[in-house]
Write a structure and sequence with these properties.
Layout: H1 2-29, H2 31-56, H3 61-114, H4 121-127, H5 130-147, H6 151-163, H7 165-174, H8 177-214, H9 220-230, H10 237-250, H11 255-281, H12 289-303, H13 305-323, H14 329-335
Length: 345
């Protein structure tokens, strides 16, 4: 009897693993459809609290919906303008940046030799190749450039999702009270997380862009956009956002400028990422660094470079969903950071 039970359990596990592989393969094959849909869902979730807030202060829901749609159009237009006007120029400059970078590192090597400091820039490049960072940045930006052609589809998806929110609320209320409680809690938590994260990511990108522009750094607005996008990745996102700016400034040979840029990134990320943002998010809305890293690898593989941007919001949604049910709370606890606490596990 026990052997039969074990066989059934193993069979179920194998079926689940096979189903998982098939689902992942399907998502990867439908990449061109899934990515715009997920971006539409992301924008809609961030926009929904604004509609609800406008409705609470007296605006008609249809008028509030129209205002938010206009706002979404403006945001997409700004994104298209920044990407369209800056990305191609930055990508064209990458070979020149590589050449200047090699020359700058060679000059640093010569300067240090005067002080009898043994420094071989080729050894450094063999360990951490700055040109590869530029290549990865180019691939990341190219993937977002491809989104421009699908911006109308993303806009339509966002509009339809927001338009359907009223009917979905009615459907949720139609469910049993227990399920309704879970769904409402999940909806509120994910809206809160994405709204707060989006606001502080925007603020991070804005402050960095303004600081870089003040010091005359090339592609300041584009580097601010990169900082905004990578700020959705906790712990390592801010470091990843700094490297492109560091290389852009490094090729100028102005080492005081390198110091100023480093202080801008450090100051903004410490102030917002380590002090202000955690106070609003709280300890419960956190992910383990290992989970962040694995989700970046997984969703980057499935959805491409844009999947790395969506990896943490998707993982955070999964964690919030798991934390709402007593049977799955332990899994949510494992996904969270070490400071996360639950009442009962």
């Amino acid at each position: 009897m026990r052997e039969d039970t074990k066989k059934v359990d193993i069979f179920r596990i194998l079926v689940m693993m096979a189903s998982f592989v098939v689902i992942v393969a399907g998502i990867k094959a439908a990449n061109s459809f899934v990515v715009p849909f997920l971006l539409s869902v992301f924008i809609a979730i961030v926009s929904l609290p604004i509609i609800n807030r406008l409705e609470k202060i007296g605006f008609n829901r249809a008028f509030a919906f129209l205002l938010v749609i206009i706002f979404v159009i403006m945001i997409l237009t700004v994104f298209i303008y920044i990407v369209g006007s800056s990305v191609n120029g930055f990508l064209d400059q990458i070979p020149e940046y590589k050449r200047k970078l090699s020359h700058t590192l060679f000059e640093v090597e010569k300067a240090l030799q005067v002080y009898n400091i043994d420094f071989n820039y080729k050894d450094l490049v063999s360990i951490v190749d700055p040109s590869k960072i530029l290549n990865y940045t180019g691939i990341f930006l190219k993937s977002f450039s491809s989104i421009i052609s699908k911006s109308f589809l993303i806009f339509l998806g966002t509009a339809f999702i927001l338009f359907e929110t009223v009917s979905w609320e009615q459907k949720i209320h139609y469910l049993s009270s227990q399920k309704e409680e879970y769904l409402e809690s999940f909806s509120k938590n994910i809206q809160r997380y994405l709204a707060i994260k989006s606001f502080f990511s925007f603020l991070t990108g804005l402050l960095i862009a303004m600081g870089l522009y003040f010091f005359g750094v090339e592609y300041a607005v584009l580097l601010g956009l990169i900082a905004f996008l990578l700020n959705f990745i906790p712990a390592i996102g801010s470091a990843l956002a700094f490297f492109p700016a560091f290389i852009v400034v490094l090729v100028s040979g102005d080492f005081y400028m390198i110091l100023y840029v480093a202080l801008i990134y450090l100051g903004v990320n410490v102030m917002i990422g380590n002090i202000i943002e955690p106070k609003f998010l709280g300890k419960d809305l956190g992910l383990s660094v290992l989970v962040v890293f694995l989700s970046l690898l997984f969703w980057g593989f499935v959805l491409g470079p844009i999947g790395m941007f969506l990896a943490v919001p998707i993982s955070m949604s999964l964690k919030i969903a798991l934390s709402l049910h007593p049977d799955t709370k332990p899994i949510a606890y494992l996904l969270g950071n070490e400071a996360t606490k639950y009442d009962k596990i």
